[in-house]
Structure formats: C-alpha cells, structure tokens
Amino acid sequence: MTTSVHPDVERDLVDPARSRRDRPEQRPGRHRRERVPADDLTVIIPAYDEVASIADTVRSVLGQSTPPARVVVVDDCSTDGTGEAARAAGAEVIRPEHNTGSKAGAQNLALGLVDTAYTMAIDADTTLAPDAIETLLEPLEADASVAAACGFVVPRHVRSVWERGRYVEYLLSFTFYKPTQDHYGAPLIASGCFSAYRTDVLRDAGGWSERTRAEDMDLTWTFFQRGHRVRFVPEAVCYPIEPHDLDFMTKQLRRWSHGFVQNVRLHWRGILPLPFLSTAVGVAMVDAVVASLVYLLVLPVLAVVVSPWLLAAYVVDVPAILVPVLVAARRRGEVGKALASVPAFLVLRIVNGVFMIRALWSEVVLRKPLLVYEKGH
Question: Which residue ranges are recorded for the region named Disordered (predicted)?
C-alpha cells in the first residue's frame, strides 16, 4: 500500500482563506474546551460517480462551526462529473490516472497529501450536523491515547423499506450497542462514513488496509491491538444516504458480511488478549451464525413440524429493541417514524442473516473471499 501521490494526479487548490470565513457561531448552552484550530484538520472524501451528492457533502463540511483547513475529494476516475461538482462546491480535487479499485485505495491516495495533525474520512454521500467536526475532534484533542473517534449515524432519507430498516438498525446500534462498547473502551468499529484520526497514528498503521472489504473495521481493530484507544461521540451526528433498493442493499450487505468474516479470520489471534473486544467480536460472530441459522432454518422447520405459533419467535424480542430505538427517536422527535419503520427492520434482520450465512460459507468453507469492492452506498 502506498500513500504517495501519482505524478499525474490532478490538483485543484481551494482558496485557503475560504475555510476560515463565515464560521457559524457556537450554539448557546454548549460548554466546550478550546477548539481544535482549523489548520489541524484535513477532510478526505473518496468519491466515484457521486455527482448527485458530492456538492452537498462538501458544502456541509465547509459550513461547519469549525471548518477544516482542507477538504480533499478523491475523484476516483468518475464518469459523471463528480470532480467538477466537488470543485465548484469549494473542495480540492485529485484524480488518479486509473481507478484505485476501492474506497481504501482512494483514501490512501489523499493521505499522501495530508500535512495536518488530524485526518477525517467522510463518505461522498454523507452530510454533517453543523457542529459535527468540532464535536468529534474533542476526544482526540483531550487525550493523546485516542487514535480515532466516530460519531452517531442517522440515514438521511427514510422512505423505502430498506432505508426504514437501516434507520431502526442505526438507532438501536448507536443508542445501545455503541455507547456500551465505548463505556468499556472498545467501540467495535469506527464507522467509515464519518471518523477522525490522528494522522501520525493512521500513517503508522499503514493507512486504510485493502486486505479486507471492511477497511474501517480492519483499521479499528488494528488500533486496539497497538494499544490505542477509539472513542464514540454520540453528539457528533452525520447523515449518509443508505441503500434505497434491494440492488444497492445487496452490494452493501455483501461487502459488510464478507468484510466482517475476513476481519475475524485476520485478527482473531491479535484480539484474543483484549478481553472486551474479543468478547464483543465473539458474541457478534455467534449471533451472526446462530441467530441467522435459527431465523432462516430452525424456526421455519419447527413451525411446520411442531406448531406455527413458533413463528412468533421472530418478533419476541421486539419490546427489547423498541426501548433504545424509541429513546433515540423521542430525542429526535421521530417516534412515529420509528414505530412505522420497525417492521422494515425485522425484514432487514432476516436479509442480514442470509448474507452472513452466504459470506461464512464462501469465505470459510469454499475459501472464495470477496476481493472486489462494490459500491453500494
């Protein structure tokens, strides 16, 4: 892996004064430490054929209460005008001679340009709350042992069954699982759509690895094994565009499920000495295997052989799911939206199980790893 810049890479520098102008005032009632200077942060946005969303992403970054010193968009040989749209919105744009082949490859290309203390990675379809950057940087500024920080993720659109399912999944994960993991000092993953890093620690880890299809999980577990800390900051909120149809959802779930299995195989020896992380990963793996088999095979068979009433097991845990989901939804004034989206979550949970079983069979039994990065939001 390399972080050097190809000599033919196109560079288009933004007005250096732009990131220091028109900064929104800090919201009343927020008590903060001294802000991280804008010159300490570079934002990297990897993009391939993202003309529909890239301008919104760039503008949301430049419009932050603490804008970064640089916003670098990697136009990874797009065919739809992504680079021009990003440039017009105010970002630097670099374009490799050939497509890098993955999100990690695009991010590593830009990492070679970074000369700031902090680096932030944001997906090209993700916008930020107005104070998300300064909020996310706080733990990095306060504690030198923190290598990375990740924020709260909420789907920008909640309309289709797939978006609704992901909406409930995120409210559950970022209201219950992620805070619990952070309490024990080991968030399972610093989400690739919106995370910040110490640049020197990121470079020392080799940047974003291309050896798995879940580069953000790979990097997070690498940090833990090197003795670094990762923090979850729920007040730092981002809004990605999630898959709206089965085609995009299929690509995303295939990448995520294969990436999880690949990371477990790659890191299991290294995480065994880390009590909470190894337990969390073990529980996640058992849940992925056992729960998926129960949902997809055991329950349908028992419903036929014993009693159809056993199908009620599909929804027996819904009350437990609803508690953290409704807590998060109430804070956002979205209780009705959350309740209406729960059935979609139950559908998505079963589909998740299908992809996890397929990934395990392909990666472990057939020894056919997923090697191609498929864009799926």
Answer: 1-38
